[in-house]
Amino acid sequence: MADSFDLIVIGGGPGGYICAIRAAQLGMNVACVEKRDALGGTCLNVGCIPSKALLHSSELYAHIPALADMGIEMESLSLDLSAMMNHKDKTVGELTKGIEFLFKKNKVTPIAGTAKITAPGSVQVALSGGGEQTLSAGNIVIATGSEPASLPGIDIDEERIVSSTGALSLSEVPEQLLVVGGGVIGLELGSVWARLGAEVTVVEFLDHIVPGADSDIRKEFQRALKKQGIGFRLSTKVTGIENSGTSLKVTVEPAEGGAAEELPADIALIAIGRRPYTDGLGLEELGVATERGMIVTDSRYQTNVSGIYAIGDVIAGPMLAHKAEDEGVAVAELLAGQAGHVNYAAIPSVVYTAPEVAWVGKTEDELKAEDVQYRAGKASFAANARAKAAGETAGFVKILADAETDQILGVHMIGPDAGNMISEATLAMEFGGAAEDLARTCHAHPTLAETIKEAALAVAKRTLNS
Questions:
Q1: 4-147+275-342 with 161-272: one CATH topology?
Q2: Strand, helix or coil at 135?
Q3: Pairing state between β 161-162 and 109-119
Q4: pLDDT tens track for 6-65
Q5: DSSP reduced 3-state for 168
Q6: CATH superfamily of 161-272
Q7: Active-site position among 56, 412, 443, 445
Q8: Is 63 annotated as catalytic?
């Protein structure tokens, strides 16, 4: 009886552990199978959390010289990379222990091992400590997440040619870091090492960085990163990396073809995206439908095989921890007979660099392509009193609203604390709010969020402070 459950969740990352906890809260007997030594998945162990710890520490380090303008001077400044890494590891360790506590609190059974679905309702686990265990349940949720994608012919050794995992644990600051990929992961980790003294060059196949972001944001963002010393080679592809053991020679060519050239590097970070991780789950044998590596599900997250569900990075949609969490809650509530739901039109994205970049909803480029009539309002942080007092005036907020109804269609921002401020815009969109709703909401003064109000006022061409 101990091996029989109402629900088995495969994967203990943000989607999986949240799904398990919510299902247990709703009265289900739940097991969560995780093959890592610690719960939390990629996000907590080698992704979102450790990268944010390094981003915060490195931002403080890089910002200290600028404090002289505010009357704060230091005679000397030094970097203890080992201590910085210890802080990162301590943060991760405390949070993984926190999930263990939450499992105990909610009576979720954690099982350490690698899972394979052998039949609907049956999961065989190769236990981490040795041996096997067969579990049964009425329903199974696949939440195994994703893994870094790689380039053909390039072997990631996590020493000189690294994925995001290796880039989080370098033992010294490289003199030259080459980042392959101008997306969120590459720019965040590139920023960390650039702040600590590395010469960073980003090679991107497309003619712009951060695919998916608004074009105005992308341009402003690239200018800001260039000022920080990060170099860019856009419309460029990497065709090979020669590893001598002590240095690298990276061969690049124009994306549309042309003469090859070599770029030197001490470390190459391959950050070209991520792919769903479904290896060894037994999906092919079960006949579970996939498309371009992703598991196909219906509106209730069920696959074509009854009783088998999937959420998070293994299904369509943005590969974001908070998207997976919301799907985990939704599927648990649906299984309990409730009305679980995720509004995919209101899922925010954030790049945790300095300045931060955040957006939710449609970009201006998308609205034009869809022939949607809209109005745009933009406000700069340079006109914001709090930003000026903090010496962080770069960036702006842009709000896009339907030309007829004024309903908010998208909000895009680059500037200080954008990752927190995007929540206000997301909430407004979740409730079908209009730009006027934001414009008429009283914002505390002086706060950075007043820039959101000013941008909303700009939609109606009635700004007050800019």
A1: yes
A2: strand
A3: unpaired
A4: 999 999 999 999 999 999 999 999 999 999 999 999 999 999 999 999 999 999 999 999
A5: coil
A6: FAD/NAD(P)-binding domain (3.50.50.60)
A7: 445
A8: no
